[in-house]
Amino acid sequence: MRLAYFDCFSGISGDMTLGALVDAGVDPEALISAINGLELPVKLSFETVRRGGFRATYAKVVAEPEHAHRHLHHIEAMIDKAAITPKQADLAKRIFLKIGEVEAAAHGIDIKKVHFHEVGAVDSIVDIVGAAVGLDLLGVDRFESSPVPPGRGSVKAAHGRMPLPAPATASLLKGIPLAESTGDFEQTTPTGAAILATVVEAFGPVPAMTIESIGLGAGTKDPEGVANILRLFVGTAARTPGADRVTVLETNLDDLPGEVVGYTTTLLMAAGALDAYVTPIQMKKNRPGVMISVLCDESKVATMEEILFRETTTLGIRRYQVSRHKLNRKPAEVATPFGTIKGKLGWLDGRPPQFSPEYDDCARVATAQNVPLRDVYKAAHAAHAQANPTSEPTSSPGVIGHSHTHDHGHDHHHHDHTH
User: For labeling, which of 134, 318, 362, 408 is most exposed (least CB within 10 Å)?
Assistant: First the structure.
């Protein structure tokens, strides 16, 4: 899996992102051509500069002064007319939508009535559209990022001077871990925060990866004491035997009957969830509630969310990825006095396997022969131990079957308390 990691040690902005993308290997002419297709009075170029003594690529945008305050539909129409792919256009519009949503919430108005001020200016349109094109051309499967320093001090916006992070940036950074600010200036801009909030799937230290290229994108300022640079690591994710990544979906509910919760988890499992479980929680106003958690492959996310939105009263679903470390597994059968019992073997490399009987098969036998379920489990474990006193993972315990068992692997994961 190809991976890109944003190292935002000095924050992130639109021009820093463009510079880092080109420095990491994206063709600058492809970005310049995309921007020219917007038919705006603007010129994009790239040049090599020094920030804090380090070489980096700077995205230089030269635009004529203007006073236009564009609405979201104006910007979307402009993007639709650009000579870029549908995927790139969709990403650009999703970044603008992120900004539109926080602007609408900040001013208490409908998103259709939001005037885009700073981010609706020509240079910001260039940054976002260029970033969308460059991120697509980078050709990676997943984006991750470091925690983000917002910066110290204040910034002058269209509605007056505001302390950092600016209101839009602060809202866009919800759910994103912040790092200590290292400079007395706006280290993370609304555009930079919107890019991260739209494409990044996980925030934390540099993941295990083989680096192929490193892009250094320069910010406009060159302050003392800090290299105003965004680093972009591009490479291949390292693979650990028995490890993979799955998506966790979570939603909090306090107004749903228990029967509906149970019905929903049944549907989720039937639709291909790796696991679906319910945790009692205490919600606002001292109301007891439950959290439905779903583990699934990324390809199943849309299906799982459709079920949650359709069957529950949730207004939003949290989504994040986690790593799993799994035992080696294969299906197996053992011969017991009660009959053949299906199950699966699980083992770590170099260690004997453990046999886990399948509940459904044990329950079937217990019911058919009118014996306690625990006796069937005990007999299955004993049969495996007797047949494999010094078994190795490659040995053939009992009779190898062909049944496929469900993967209900549980993961240790952090809890996102946003609603």
Answer: 408
Which amino acid type is present at position 129?
V
Which tokens sit at 316?
């939003």
CB-based contact 132:67 (threshold 8 Å): no
229 close to 16: Cβ distance less than 8 angstroms: yes
The per-residue pLDDT for 17 is 98
H-helix or E-strand containing 23?
helix 14-23
Q: Which two tokens stand for residue 75?
A: 């910007």
For residue 149, give the nearest of 221, 93, 226 by alpha carbon: 226
Task: Report yes or no: 74 and 249 within 8 Å, Cβ to Cβ.
Answer: no
Burial code of 183-208, b = ≥16 C-beta within 10 A, e = fewer? bebbbbbbbbbbbbbbbbeebeeebe
> In terms of Cα–Cα distance, which of 217, 131, 222 is closest to 185?
222
Q: Which helix (H) or strand (E) holds 154?
A: strand 154-157
Strand partners, 59: 46
Separation CA 74–CA 83 (nearest Å): 17
Closest by CA position to 15, among listed 264, 243, 188, 201: 188
In angstroms, the Cα distances linking 117 to 92, 93, 120, 168, 344 are: 17, 16, 5, 11, 60
pLDDT (0 to 100) of residue 410: 40
Taking 3-state DSSP, the helix, strand and coil percentages for the chain, each rounded to the nearest 5, stand at 35, 30, 35
Pick the closest to residue 300 from 275, 266, 329, 326 (CA basis): 275
Residue 75 phi/psi, 5-degree rounding, is: -70, -40
Neighbouring residues of 406: CB distance < 8 A, sequence distance ≥ 6: 269, 274
* Angle, CA 126 vertex, CA 122 and CA 129 arms, to 5°: 130
Write down the pLDDT at residue 34: 94
Give the SS3 label for residue 286. Answer: helix
Cβ-Cβ contacts under 8 Å for 143 (sequence gap 6 or more): 3, 4, 5, 6, 135, 199, 200, 201
Q: Outline where 37-166 has alpha helix (H).
A: 72-81, 86-107, 122-137
Q: Encoding tokens for residue 295?
A: 């583990």
Q: What does the pLDDT read at residue 403?
A: 36
Question: What residue type is 219 in one-letter code?
Answer: G
Residue that has been written with the tokens 């170099």 in this structure: 350
What does the pLDDT read at residue 416? Answer: 39
